[in-house]
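Subject: complex prediction, re-run

Hi both,

The earlier run crashed halfway through, so I resubmitted it with identical inputs.
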Amino acid sequence: MNRRTISRRSLLKAGAATGALAVAGALPFGAAHAADLTVGFIYVGPKDDFGYNQAHAEGAAAVKKMAGVTVVEEENVPETVSVQKSMESMINFDGASLMFPTSFGYFDPHILAVAPKHPDVRFQHAGGLWSADKHPKNAGSYFGYIGLGQYLNGITAGHATKSKKIGFVAAKPIPQVLMNINAFLLGARAVDPTITCQVIFTGEWSLAVKEAEATNALADQGCDVITCHVDGPKVVVETAAGRGAFVCGYHADQSPLAPEKYLTGAEWNWANVYTGMVETMMGGGTIDNFVRGGLSDGFVKMSPLGPAVSDTARNQFEAAKAEIMKGGFLIIKGPINDNKGNVIAPAGKSFAEDDIALESMDYLVEGVIGSTS
Amino acid sequence: MNETDLGLWAVPLAMIGGAIRVSTPFLFVSLGECLTERSGRINLGLEGTLVFGAMSGYAVAYESGSAWIGVLAAALAGMLFGFFHGWVCKLPKVNDIAIGIALMLLGMGLAFFFGKPYVQPQAPDLPAISFGWWSDISQVQAALQVNVLFLIGIVLTVAMGWMFRTTRIGLIVRVVGDSTDAARSMGLNPNVVRLLATGAGGALAGVGGAYLSLYYPGSWNEGLSSGQGLMAVALVIFARWSPVNCFWAALLFGGAGALGPALQSVGISSGYYLFYAAPYVLTLGLLIATSSPNRALESAPGELSITK
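This time it finished cleanly. Structure:
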């Protein structure tokens, strides 16, 4: 069962009531006074969603274990003025001096409104919108390149598929999602160049019934390895495993949902990123305002390989991973065409994962069955 | 797995499978609303009831270890919502549509609040019966996995149609729905009849929610319902207040909803946003085709506040 968490509001009320007695040591959070740094985490959804929010919450859990650090968390905070209230409350009542508001929509206008009022508090936002000439210096942005994680997913998928058809349930055709689809296929094609990847777009980040229908439609077409890019992969993983297909995970580790069918998964490694940032803060340093990284930088990690992964698959997976860990891995290698026959890159031209050109990706590579519109 | 390449046949097959899988919540909510509206009340809050039913069904199934106890809990929770709506609406000068919208928001809010600890755990699923044993094709077998609740829905549809047509209870509901004055002169208490009809309708909507969380897609989270409860209320009007038509309308919506993913899976992939709009386009088309200045809303209950 889950821990029952006391809501911030009731905690504050209780705090105000007992505050009259002014016995600070009796308060449960009295220990906070001893801490050197208080860090606040805010999530847009439940922190146990097997997806995006859980990945961030696992990072927060790692920070919590550090000596001298107190962590305050709040989940299900909508991208409205309520996130400003949450931030103010964490700063004013809990004394947080490092904030991680983790959802994309928290940045503009909410962090931009709160940050100038608290120049000594650092705001770290997961997304990618910070620019030096427009935004406050005490705000920063960080994010990871997870495409190579999907590439490694694709390698295990390429070995596991018998039908030579793999499937992808995608939310919306934005560059990051297209990158993941393309990388998944390219990974599989590194095993067998005849493999195709069927993609189905659901049109929304979270639409449980449509995600289940899309997964069923992929299974009906004979796709026997399925992965996804939606907010909460739980429905896709459970439905795919129920249809006897293998699954590759995304965002967080979903292996408990399908222990036999789970091959591996591309996970965020926020634990590494967050502890590093907290260490920098506690050591008196400044965190860079614009931070990016992929597998080789420890921003992304892979789930442990599942029982269905063969030894040949394991070897190729480990070899590719070792290659990627060296850094500078070329993910889109020319000559390569998109699935409409247009040239993406001629022979000799390639793109590494941090190439800025990939951030405006609007194509699906040859071998992906699907359309971006 | 032993998949056969079906080519374009996959689309009709997916629509049949989708109709069976997706239609059950539509069916239960629209049957419930049909009963309520036949008694002369509109309960627009069934979306909230559906979501709360999904949450309570999942929570109770997880705690008790039995999916059927979960369904029962969802029905009870739905009934409470229905009774509350019925009780408030019998007070003078209360608008049932406004109360319904308020209850919809309340139901969703309460479900999100109490459902928090149940996002992660895995509750037992409802059983399904395989009707695809005659086929060697695994896609056909998968499409014909029929959940027991769907079968119960079919029985309920027939039973409710028969009840309205031939039984005394059916007659009472219809009289109350068509004319409060006539019902009073027969010695009936319209408020009590409507209270019971709304309660029963809420219970059915709760069961529809339990299907969502306990079978398909089969887990509780806050984005589980995408407006099935609201659409089902519209389906009742579309079905002209007939339970049997509600069944066909629910199947049609379920099947049309499967069209988008199925077409993408056979390679017809451009314009999927348009295909996702198929159920709504279909409804509009059918409503326009079946409407006429003389026949419109012919079988509408006379006491319904939208037709008065």
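Chain B has a mean pLDDT of 88.

- K.
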